[in-house]
Design a protein that fits this description.
Number of helices: 11
Strand content: under 5%
Radius of gyration: 23 Å
Largest sheet: 2 strands, antiparallel
Number of strands: 4
Length: 371
């Protein structure tokens, strides 16, 4: 659903750019809290969330290269807003998808640069907000279990894709450059993206379910799923029956040793590299939902050449490498590495700024305490 240059006029592109910038600014502040508070043990988990958030961005980049067929002559791909919001939080999720869109636009000529605000608004903000809002509602009404998290992930991801299609239609109604009946655009966009949403839902549910199966403490949307650690008085001590009741032991839980996330991180990175570097060769070559609708409705007549169309990585292939398998695979690996580096860098800086802000009040209060 990457919108190219020329589909949306300048005033609406500027307005969505301002909206996207404001949303990213808000997300930067919100992500500081999420990166500092995710994981059991609060601040303990904060030390591992920045690399994981960077990995989520890289994984979304990789899986977006895997176009899957949804109808005759039409394909779809992961948008990723629901997956990112559930795994690392809605604010961090918006930033993850925004990083992916930025890397795709600059390095791979995928999604117009003047349309970057449109794409961030549609693919990062709308999908993350709609998906996470619905996810939280479902988690509250469903039984408190891991299966419920997976079911809620499936449904919220499914709904987020046609929601993005509706948002694009609204933007096109405001600033579309081709004279096309909006009713036809709406029907075509929503129809095909409901089918794409099924694929999005399956990928999201499988990924969230896989992480929950091994490390539920790493899933932002599963916070509170694990029962708190309790102490039980042994009957051998001769204690009274009343003393044998369970006693919450938050101090023990907080003091529990941290479990390394290295295996999860390495497994996620390996999956991303395999998807982008190997499986992407077998992805559907059919146009995605927006491309198909744009062609059928005549919207693409107003498309303009991408500003970075001469990039050495344009169209997800390495320039001057003639073997398509090697060219596409190498471009995918480079994209995963670049997205991982940029995403991790952003989130590490945010985490450090949050830690510095938390440490400042205590440092300021120290002289007064000594006095």
């Amino acid at each position: 659903m990457h919108v190219p240059d020329g589909f949306i006029n300048a005033p609406v592109s500027v307005a969505t750019g301002a909206l996207a910038a404001a949303a990213v600014a808000v997300s930067l502040r919100g992500a500081r809290r999420e990166l500092a508070g995710t994981g059991q043990g609060g601040g303990t988990g904060a030390e591992r969330t920045a690399p994981l958030a960077g990995l989520v961005a890289a994984f979304i980049f990789a899986v977006q290269m895997l176009n899957f067929p949804v109808a005759a002559g039409t394909s779809g791909h992961l948008l990723g807003g629901a997956l990112a919001a559930i795994l690392v939080g809605p604010y961090t999720g918006v930033l993850c998808v925004s990083v992916v869109l930025l890397m795709q636009g600059v390095l791979f000529a995928d999604g117009g640069l003047t349309a970057l605000g449109v794409n961030i608004t549609d693919m990062a903000i709308v999908t993350s907000v709609v998906a996470y809002g619905l996810f939280r509602v479902l988690v509250k009404v469903l039984p408190r279990s891991r299966r419920s998290i997976t079911v809620a992930s499936f449904v919220s991801a499914l709904v987020s894709v046609p929601a993005a299609a509706v948002a694009f239609t609204a933007l096109y109604a405001l600033g579309g450059t081709a004279d096309v009946p909006i009713g036809k655009v709406f029907t075509a966009m929503v129809g095909v993206h409901v089918l794409i949403g099924i694929g999005e839902a399956a990928i999201t549910a499988l990924t969230v379910g896989a992480v929950i199966a091994v490390r539920p403490d790493l899933v932002h949307g599963a916070r509170g799923l694990t029962a708190p650690l309790e102490l039980r008085t042994s009957p051998l001590t001769g204690a009274a029956p009343a003393a044998a009741a369970t006693t919450p032991a938050p101090a023990v839980a907080a003091a529990a040793p941290r479990r390394s996330v290295r295996r999860v991180w390495l497994a996620g990175l390996a999956a991303a590299l395999v998807c982008a570097g190997g499986i992407s060769y077998y992805a559907s070559a059919s146009p995605d939902g927006l491309e198909k609708v744009a062609h059928d409705q005549g919207i693409d007549a107003k498309a303009r050449d991408h500003a970075t169309k001469d990039s050495p990585l344009a169209d997800y292939s390495v320039k001057d490498i003639t073997d398509p398998r090697l060219s596409g695979g190498l471009a995918g690996v480079i994209g995963v590495g670049a997205t991982l580096a940029v995403g991790t860098g952003v989130f590490v800086v945010l985490r450090r700024r949050r830690n510095a802000a938390d440490a400042r009040p205590s440092a300021d209060s120290a002289p007064a305490e000594r006095a």
